[in-house]
Amino acid sequence: MCGTGARRVQHLWRQLLPLPPRGSYPSGVTTPLRADLVCEGGGVKGIGLVGGVTVLAEAGYTFPRVAGSSAGAIAGCLVAALQQAGEPLTRLEDLVRSVDYRRFRDVDLLGRLPLVGRALAVLAHDGLYEGRYLEQFLRGALDDLGISTFGDLRIPSDDESAEGLPDQHAYRLVVTVSDLSRQRLIRLPWDLPQYDVEPDHYSVARAVRASAAIPFFFRPVRQPTPAGDATWVDGGLLSNFPIELFDRSDSLEPRWPTFGVRLTTRPPSPPATRRVEGPLGIGLAALDTLLTDQGSSYLEAPCTVQRTVFIPTSGVSVVEFDLDRAAQERLYQAGREAAAQFLRTWDFGRYVALCRRAG
Q1: Do 21 and 235 touch, CB atoms closer than 8 A?
Q2: Nearest Cα to 62, choosing from 143, 172, 188?
Q3: How far apart are CA 245 and CA 36, in angstroms?
Q4: How far apart are CA 84 and CA 105, in angstroms?
């Protein structure tokens, strides 16, 4: 869908979901619909993110800044790149549908050895899969949009969304990565100077590849530093849903909201129960639990819930790369339905009054 079709859908959304009256916006906010965007990680379940973000875009929203972990970083980098290139976000669906998820399981010759190959690959390379397909796919998709490094995603100083931002934070995209060497969460490109790396020159695809390096499944990214290589893995280990990343630290009201998109049901919905058997099953269940339930008390806080799209994805593993087309479509439609439901009740003025009012 593009051009006239996209405008027709946007017009329909504006009829179904009329803009709140002018007085419901905080002072200084005008009618264009803008929201910073934070996408949760969740491996292959990230297909649901695309459905959710597409509906937000069809409703007229643009996203000055986007952040994400793991699968959220993948979706986020494509959203940021499409907007920077002046392309409609309706293209996001086509990009994600072009991914062959089975190729994520890119084992090398060692990993293909009978019986012991997979265990040897993990021992030799700290990960079963190379992660090469993901990075190559992203490089190709981003290159087509004129995006290679974070410098290509800089926010111009005269852009309204750059107002009040320190220079090191003036980027359209932020991806989170867990640095196992330093035992801390890092935000790329913001924290790259800590590694003696010029942020504007760092590859976006490489950063997202690091953010999506699920431990034991994908090889970590080794980042050279003067003190030795740092080991970067999935950002979801330390912060799978950094919804507060773009919140103002001063006492002023936000000019527009931050929307979060999560790959879990809204609390306190009971989680789905599934059977867990064997060492591999326990490992997968532990990984799923870590990536989807960390910091649940914070994530279930009323002011977090109020600005978050909750997409039900239970029953799908983060590394279930052999999902058939029907299952992929169900995830995508779940994202669309969740975002549509969110928009029916979203009220920025009410959110600010309850959660962000100055003083």
Answers
A1: no
A2: 172
A3: 10
A4: 31
Structure tokens at 86: 């002046």
Tokens at residue 269, please?
């919905």
Query: Which residue, chain included where needed, has tokens 């052999």?
Result: 322
Size of the chain, expressed as the number of residues it contains:
359
Residue 243 CB burial class (10 angstroms; 0-12, 13-18, ≥19): buried
Q: Which residues pair with 188 in a beta bridge?
A: 175
Per-residue pLDDT of the chain (359 residues; tens, 9 = 90+): 444 444 444 444 444 443 333 333 333 444 579 999 999 998 899 999 999 999 999 999 999 999 999 999 999 999 999 999 999 998 999 988 888 888 887 776 655 556 666 665 666 666 778 789 999 999 999 999 999 999 999 999 999 888 889 999 999 999 999 999 999 999 999 999 999 999 999 999 999 999 999 888 888 999 999 889 999 999 888 888 899 999 987 777 899 999 999 998 765 555 555 565 555 555 555 666 565 555 454 557 888 999 999 999 988 888 888 999 999 999 999 999 999 999 999 999 999 998 876 54
Name the amino acid, one letter, at 107: V
Q: Count CB-CB contacts under 10 A for residue 72.
A: 33
